[in-house]
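ok here's Transcriptional regulatory protein LiaR, seq below lol
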Amino acid sequence: MLTTLSGRETNLLFAIMEDMVAIRDARKLRTQIGERLLDLLEADYFASYVWTKSDGDTGGVYLNMDESNLAAYESHYQYCDPITPRFRMCQRAAHVEQVISREQFDRTEFYNDFLARDGLYHGMNYHAYSASGHLGDLRIWRGGNRETFQERDLELLDAIGAAFGKALGNLRSDAEKLRDTDPRIRVANWASQHGLTARERDVICLLAEGRRDREIATVLGVSVTTVRSHLKSIFQKSGASSRANLIVSLNAPVQ
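and the structure came out like this:
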């Protein structure tokens, strides 16, 4: 358990906590926290992703890593990654040797063809979760010519990770509330959910504003017949049986 902090560590921790309050974009927050962590933990490399069971790791941000190598991770190496799934199961910050033996890890394709290419050797992760799922992670690495991370480093990452998860959870909750209350966002999400084309999306946005077919046709510069053809397609895709039913569907929270 952390008992004493140097002046430098204290200042950086305060800066990190201020970032978590001030930054209202999750991607920007992950990037900024990464920059602070490299300084605080005297590390060399940083990456952060958001994981879902269906899509794997997405939304990557990274520092001091090769962009083409990260693209290879997203398309291939994440699917033969022997450590990140184990890190996700940890309830706290953990380093590589806590989830796999160094000897075994050094023989993997993941290490030799991906991590070693950028010089990553000593690593630790923190994965944040809420009831809605994985919120984001913090992946910190040092090169092979550096000392491995110590228990104190894990304790620092653990303390920051808990606040990081809370901040990301608040941002996700705020985004979900905005999605359900802002009519433009709600309609755009509804259109995406039902696979509408760009023109069908234009039609449904105007319909949601209470416009009649002739008004929609005038705004879009098309015939009334074309508008009604788009509406017919929207009915088929959404399963709505009438305009009233369609409006009810539009105003329902997007799942």
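fwiw The chain has two domains: 7-175, 182-251. kinda neat tbh
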